[in-house]
C-alpha cells in the first residue's frame, strides 16, 4: 500500500508537468479528519487549471490511486480532486487569492512550497 505522502508527491510532480505554480502541500493530519494532506497549486488561466487537474488525475490513475470525488471541473476556477487520503486543489490565480486556503489552514505544517 502506498502512503499518502507518496500520493501527494505524485500529484505535485504531475502539476509541475503542466507548469502549475505556487505549489504547496499542507500536512493536515493533526488538525483534520478530512485527509492527510492538501496539495494546492495555481494556474494562470481556466484552460491551464483544467489541464493541470487532468494531468494530476492521469498520473494518479497511472500510479493506481482512485479519484473518489471531483468538484468545480465545469467552472474551471477551483477544481477539487479528492483521493480520500489527499485532496488536491487546483486554483485559477484570483480564486486562490480570494479563498486563501493557506490562511484558513494556517495551523497545518507546510511540507512543500515551490
Summarize the structure in short.
This protein has 114 residues and is of the alpha+beta class. The chain is built from four helices and six strands; from the N terminus they run H-E-E-H-E-E-E-H-H-E. A six-stranded mixed sheet has the order 3-4-5-2-1-6.
Q: Could you walk me through the main structural features you see in this protein, from its secondary elements to its overall organization?
A:
Helices cover 37% and strands 30% of the residues. It is of the alpha+beta class and 114 residues long. It has a single domain (4-113), classed as 2-Layer Sandwich (Beta Polymerase, domain 2). The protein has a 6-stranded mixed β-sheet. A hairpin with a 6-residue loop joins strand 3 (69-71) and strand 4. Helix 1 (4-17) packs across helix 2. The chain is globular. The termini are far apart. The mean pLDDT is 95.
Give the distance, in angstroms, between the N- and C-terminal Cα atoms.
Answer: 27 Å
Summed up, the helix count is 4
Range of helix content: 25-40%
User: Approximately how much beta-strand content do the residues carry?
Assistant: 25-35%
Major sheet details: 6 strands, mixed
CATH architecture: 2-Layer Sandwich
Structural class: alpha+beta
List keywords for this structure.
Beta Polymerase, domain 2, six-stranded mixed β-sheet, 37% helix
Amino acid at each position: 500500500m502506498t502512503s499518502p505522502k507518496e500520493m501527494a508527491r505524485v500529484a505535485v510532480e504531475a502539476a509541475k508537468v503542466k507548469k502549475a505554480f505556487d505549489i504547496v502541500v499542507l500536512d493536515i493530519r493533526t488538525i483534520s479528519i478530512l485527509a492527510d494532506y492538501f496539495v494546492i497549486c495555481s494556474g494562470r488561466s481556466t484552460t491551464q487549471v483544467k489541464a493541470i487537474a487532468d494531468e494530476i488525475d492521469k498520473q494518479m490513475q497511472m500510479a493506481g490511486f482512485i479519484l473518489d470525488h471531483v468538484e468545480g471541473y465545469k467552472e474551471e476556477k477551483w477544481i477539487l480532486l479528492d483521493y480520500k487520503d489527499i485532496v488536491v486543489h487546483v486554483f485559477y490565480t484570483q480564486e486562490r487569492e480570494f479563498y486563501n486556503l493557506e490562511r484558513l489552514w494556517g495551523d497545518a505544517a507546510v511540507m512543500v512550497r515551490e
